[in-house]
Amino acid sequence: MMRSLRTASLAVAVLASGCYKNTIQTGAQPGATSDHKAQFYVYGLIGESNFNLDQICPSGVAKIEESAEFVDGLLGCLTCSIYTPITVKITCASGSAWNLTPDELSGRTLVTTSASEDETTTDEGA
Q: What is the separation of C-alpha 24 from the centre of its chain, rounded to a whole number of angstroms?
């Protein structure tokens, strides 16, 4: 009796830890991928994760995937959901990114790419 109760409890705990995945795609051509952990506590209610995307992907972001993988769910289960990590996979864009800097005095926009030092100015709204 006690053994079947333990087995049932373990099965419920594993099934309740569930996996999910959210994906945001920008349409840019994918390049290098890096994995990061977001730290949350108390059923995921406490905590905040900020990633400096300009530092991680200087050429822009192609895709961001946020998921609760099996190991994340297992850690949450083992700590009774006091600690609930989330895996964040960031895929950088290949190529160069455009940086737009408005110049309010001249009414122009300064356009630069991260791959080159060339600067081009364009009229915007003038």
A: 9
